[in-house]
Amino acid sequence: MKYGIIKYTTIPKGRESIVGDTGMFNIGDNIQMYAMKRILTDHMHVDEKDIIEVDFHSLADYSGEYVILPVNLFFFGCHDLKETWFPASPYIIPVFVGVHFSSGILSDEEVSYLKLHSPIGCRDKYTLNTMRKYGIPAYLAGCVTATLPRRPSGIKGDKVFCVDVDSESVLKVIPEELKKNIELIGHVRRGVFSPTMYEEADREAEELIKRYYNEAALVVTSRLHCASPCAAMGIPTIMVAKEISSRFSWLGSILPIYTDKEYDRIDWDVKPSEYEDIKEKMIRTIVRRLREAYDKWSDLADISSFFEKPDSKEETVDPYDVFFASVDRALSGGIKGYYLWGGTALAEESFEHIRKKYPQIPLLGLIDEYNPVSINGLKSMHFDETGDCGEDILMICTPSSSKNNIKDRLLSSGSFGGSAVFFDGEIVVKNRK
């Protein structure tokens, strides 16, 4: 088992067939990935070659080695209309260290999944409130970019970087002495979705961080993932925004944020942020949670991986898949109604399967001659109470141990002339003469 990191490596879901597909991408995402990688290599001493890269667009269907995966990016939600991120692949053990969900709506399955992997480190108050709304243990973690190391006091820089700001408005209010060495920079790029583009974005993100670290005397930006890492590196940083989004809620604790209506009140003599004690706690928390997950799952994953090796002699078959495939075949033959035989968990699953896939086919009754149970409001009955069952009636027989007894009763019954599906997938069709 290894540690992983989320990367962009493939074309977004739903756009695979578009030749030369171009789109916008934000270097800030790559800066987040860079910061997370620094946690693994610098603080956990994980060899870079041992870090597994998991594609952002393949979280749900990843099938590689078991991996402990820190999650610290922007997501529209656990899913959107094109793809699913969470629940992730069973080969991924996620550790949510600073996630943002722009959707505040979660399904029951998603709530259960997030509770299983809680506490959820939330990047902002909006995501935190979503978790609390659904009763999911969570905490406000900020962003991993805020953990980058502070530059030595000897590095001052002499350049003012204005990053994705309304330059006309900002240049009107910036003091004259700061205008001598200004560089306008943007974090948003347009390009063709490809591995080459993603690799270039990674290199550019790392290069930008180095430039800010070595050259910046001041950074003025509207970008969260410029302001956060620059503040972490001890660079005087001013955040300017049209409005203060909930995504920025935590950021105000470490640097000043001004809306466009407050530009005339900007304190241009801003000092480097001081929060090294909190930064150390952020790092310790991330490292501890990742190591705890590794300690919990490493041996389990190794054992499971050993026994999951495919049998070289024959393909394995899931009996439930065989059973439901037979149910589907039987229901496709003009069936007008069905009975469930046996008050079992498989009977409940069969009812849900048919209700969702064949809502027009009604459940006629539940047969269980030994236990008084019910399903969908129907109390169990004896087989003799079913009355006449013609060829358009299906009997779904779920008990495995009593298959032969049930089969004999159906074949010898004068009132039954339909078809039956058994636990092992056998379909029996009885034609009355």
Write a structural description:
With 433 residues, this protein is α/β, with parallel strands linked by helices. The chain has 3 domains: 2-146 and 278-307; 148-273, Rossmann fold (3-Layer(aba) Sandwich); 319-429, Rossmann fold (3-Layer(aba) Sandwich), CATH 3.40.50. Helix content is 32%, strand content 21%. The protein has helices spanning 27-43, 108-116, 125-133, 167-173, 195-215, 224-232, 276-307, 319-331, 345-357, 403-412; strands at 2-7, 22-26, 52-55, 67-71, 74-75, 92-96, 100-101, 120-122, 138-140, 159-163, 182-185, 188-192, 216-221, 237-241, 257-259, 337-341, 363-367, 374-375, 378-381, 393-397, 419-422, 427-429. A 7-stranded mixed beta sheet has the order 18-19-17-16-20-21-22, with helices on both faces. Strands 11-10-13-14-15 form a 5-stranded parallel beta sheet. Helix 9 links the parallel strand 16 (337-341) and strand 17. Helix 1 packs across helix 5 (195-215) and helix 1 (27-43) packs parallel to helix 6. The chain starts with a strand and ends with a strand. The model has no long low-confidence stretch (mean pLDDT 90).
What topology does this entry show?
Layout (H helix, E strand, L loop, with lengths): L1 E6 L14 E5 H17 L8 E4 L11 E5 L2 E2 L16 E5 L3 E2 L6 H9 L3 E3 L2 H9 L4 E3 L18 E5 L3 H7 L8 E4 L2 E5 L2 H21 E6 L2 H9 L4 E5 L15 E3 L16 H32 L11 H13 L5 E5 L3 H13 L5 E5 L6 E2 L2 E4 L11 E5 L5 H10 L6 E4 L4 E3 L4
Parallel strand pairs: 1-3, 1-4, 4-6, 5-7, 8-9, 10-11, 10-13, 13-14, 14-15, 16-17, 16-20, 17-19, 20-21
Antiparallel strand pairs: 2-12, 18-19, 21-22
Helix pairs in contact: 1-5, 1-6
